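Sync notes, pocket subgroup
Present: LS, DG
LS reminded everyone that the earlier model was apo-only. Rerun requested with magnesium ion included. Inputs:
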Amino acid sequence: MTTSPSPTLYPDAEGIAQAAAFLRAGQLVAFPTETVYGLGADACNGEAVAAIYAAKGRPSFNPLIVHLPSVQAAQRYVIWTDDADRLAQAFWPGPLTLVLPLREGHDLSSLVTAGLSTLALRVPEKASAQALLEAFGGPVAAPSANPSGKISPTTAQHVLDGLGNKIAAVLDDGPCSVGVESTIVGLDGTPALLRAGGLPLEALEAALGTPLERTSTPESHTGITAPGQLQSHYAPKAPLRMNADNPRSGEVFLGFGPMACDENLSESGDLHEAAARLFELLHKLDARGQPIAVAPVPTHGLGFAINDRLARAAAPRPENRQPT
Ligand code: TXA
Ligand code: MG
């Protein structure tokens, strides 16, 4: 872990090689994916994985997603199923994480799974993420690159603002196109939605041919089985209020659709645009230090994940009120 400001690398041959070398040396490298920036470490190096938890201030019971460049590479670590095959063929590479039973004889650090018998796997699509994973040649553990409980980063600057003095480097490849984290599906038993995210539920259910058991909904986010689905998350410093038709005095107003507001998720009411801008605008409004009111956002498609993130940002958070 470094204490001086970390260098910014760019996704050219030299930057990718340097980022992969840092990972090989057990250092932390923040890198872009199409969803959010990840805080990457060699998943087989226990000290490197421990450094992720330390940098984020993350509760140690919260397991990490392992990132791999291809379906074949991912299959080595888990007991593969027909449903996994269906979803991987349809959506990998992409904003989907699958949780499957861990295969025996793997060489992952046990800190990655936080002692669970399942593993969360993802094959990201963004070309610079693919290039880094190929160059490194092994599994990369990566949570979102933000201090635990805070807003997820969708630009390299967000990463530097939150974790700049705790990482070896950030690989800057511009803003993330999806903007919310991957959708997590549990396949250790009945297929279940563990976290709404960048891949809409409707698309998943169409590919599976059956409805997913829902353990996470925007309306009720208490019975969640992904250990990381702590109720308060993605929290700005100031309080946030959802489904506001108008701002109250002193509030800044985050709009959706044509309306008067301080910032707008999407003037045209496009949920993809809204997801891509969500964390960027929360970071921006948070910097103003005032309470945030957010206009209603529909709950279909990517709106499901957007409402989930807003509900967590709005949730009571006694320990999270102060910036860390
Ligand atoms: O889009 C994303 O998924 C980003 C990028 C960097 O890939 N990563 C991300 O990681 O959002 P993180 O650590 O912020 O969220 C991962 C979630 C956590 O809520 C964790 O509890 C859950 O995945 N998770 C990890 N392993 C799990 C497992 N074996 N079973 C259930 N949930 C698991
Ligand atoms: Mg996160």
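DG: Confidence is low (pLDDT under 50) at residues 216-225, 320-324.
LS: Residues 218 and 308 are 4 Å apart (CA to CA).
Action: DG to write up.
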